[in-house]
Amino acid sequence: MKSKIYKPERQKDVEGTALGLVSTRSFPAIVGTADMMLKSSGVVLMGYEKIGDGHCTAIVRGGISDVRLAVREGVEIAEQFGQLVSSSIIPRPLANLEAVLPIGSRLSLLAQQNGSTRPSNLAIGLLETWGFPAMVGAVDMMLKSADVQFTAYELIGAGLCTAIVRGTVANVAVAVEAGMYEAERIGGLNAVMVIPRPLEDLERTLPVASCSLEKPQPLRLPLYVKETEKEAIELPDISQMTKS
Fold first, then answer.
1. What is the pLDDT of residues 183-229, one digit of tens each?
2. Which of 22, 80, 129, 185 has the CB geometry, 3.0–4.6 Å to 135, for a possible disulfide?
């Protein structure tokens, strides 16, 4: 009679699974890499880790064979971008490792949602610059050249700033091209990326600004109180001012 080998619950949970990590030197490059990893195999994107100096790592989770395929495809696309730093596959990670990495909360969320890989009908545009002024100038040009929404920006150290816009594929392509030329004019373009029909799994990992994008409110200056008279004076609404 064969004796039954006891395996702890935490070991049972991770049998047959793996973590895959691919690192690049650019945020648009890591998002493009993550997009390819998701679309090439049945993995789940757990998120990104940004450690400064422009280094970004995408972390995926799934079956060992799926993770191996995803990492292989991710490495290939990152090399095409010229931004690959390193990659790694961790088969059968224990629960403590996953809990400490920046994926613990994502695991619990996926357990409730069961994940979703439906593609979006829109596109994501990412434009990375050296320096904040170049990014702001590029965003201004993108918004003026096409019907896109500026939804957030990402800072990854080493002076690298990435603007993220969303819209139809055609509009995003036009906007990114216009922003690219403006960033080059200012002297700070580093990388660009257009991702058509991103999966929902990718969308959930990207930052989104907390402000309302539909109806911006007019800018009002705060009340100013005179130190001598203690009178509350409401300054004019500068959005209503016109040039003389």
1. 999 999 999 999 999 998 898 888 886 654 554 555 554 544 444 44
2. 129
- Helices within 57-168 (DSSP H only): 64-81, 95-100, 104-113, 132-145
Integer Cα distance of 71 and 34 in angstroms? 9
pLDDT-derived band at 7 (thresholds 50, 70, 90) equals: very low
Asked if 78 contacts 72 with a C-beta cutoff of 8 angstroms, the reply is: no
Lookup result for tokens 């799934």: 62
| DSSP state string for 86-103 | EEEEEES--HHHHHHTTT
The domain 13-113 is classified under which CATH number: 3.20.20.140, 3.30.70.1710, 3.40.50.300, 1.10.10.10? 3.30.70.1710
Dihedral pair phi/psi, residue 105, rounded to 5°: -65, -30
Mean pLDDT of the chain: 82
Pairwise CA distance, residues 42 & 195, whole Å = 19
Q: Is 75 helix (H, G, I), strand (E, B) or coil?
A: helix
